[in-house]
Amino acid sequence: MKRIYWASHAAIFYCLTLIAALLPAAVTYRIGAQAGVLISLLLPSRHRIAVDNIQRALPFIKAHPLWNSPCENAEELTREMFKNLGRSLMEVCRLYHGRGEDVIGSIELRGRENYEAARAKGKGLLFLTGHCGNWELMALAFSSIFGEGMSVVARRQNNPYLNRMVENMRMRYNSNVIYKQGALKAILSNLKKGQLIGMLADQAVFPEEGALIDVLGRKAWASKAPVIIAQKSGAPLLPTFIHREGERQIITFHPEHNFSGDMSDEGVQKETQALSRYVENFVVAHPTQWYWVHRRWKRAGEMVQ
């Protein structure tokens, strides 16, 4: 029975993404925003989580020197965040069905010299990013832009049919998935071969897997994995983010992060905090382009509402 449910779910997903992909590219931006509003209405619990997260973060982000948003309150920011989420979803649908050339063609690169300097070292390369902008687009676009694909660390979908569909889409763009279970060995092996690895480092982890740091003015558990992997492999770590400016996409490569080499618990905690600041700065500068709907601060001693 479960297999029938999974297959039906995957078939519905495929049909919906196909309909979205077949829409004229000229209306994708506007229709995507409307789809985001609909998603917000259909998922009221996620809307409430986003409003709560933003409301708690507002005192911190409004006092930050990078804050420049015209939105004044949590409801406005949440509404714009869902619109951007809908736009990103429409773009990914086009990519999924091989119709995303215009999406990839809209990408502008900033800080490319930082990427080239890190790549010139002849080692693998770690990209540190988060659920920022259209993060799926960034991973899928690398093959078209640089002629080499990126492997991303992700959780396996519970629905095996849906998981296979997503894998097929990634393979079309020379992009692979390294699943979290047993990921360390695969990541180190790929880096040793000189390959590119993308890591999303902005979700809550269990205490035994992370370090307790400050995130947007509140305590949160963050994964130590990027620090440990970079130190073990010797591969350069490049903070890299994508954001949208109107209908354009901007990928920004920051300079390579320099590690202290201190692998004590305190040293790893400090480096984990330092890496989190890159994501934090992105969120402050682009508050409607971060995925506020997850419980980033859970398990850190605060009550969940």
Q: What is the rounded distance between the termini?
A: 35 Å
User: How many domains is the backbone divided into?
Assistant: 1
Report the count of strand segments.
Answer: 9
Q: What best-fitting shape do the alpha-carbon axes yield?
A: globular
Write up what this structure looks like.
The structure is a single chain. With 305 residues, the chain is an alpha/beta fold. It has one domain. Helix content is 51%, strand content 16%. It contains eleven helices and nine strands. It has helices at residues 2-22, 28-42, 44-62, 74-96, 101-105, 112-119, 135-146, 160-172, 183-192, 225-233, 265-285, and strands at 107-110, 125-129, 150-154, 176-179, 196-200, 210-215, 218-223, 237-245, 248-253. The strands form two sheets. The protein has a seven-stranded mixed sheet, with helices on both faces. The chain has a two-stranded antiparallel sheet with strand order 6-7. α3 crosses α4 and α9 packs parallel to α10. The longest helix has 23 residues, at 74-96. It is globular and about 50 Å long. The relative contact order is 0.16.
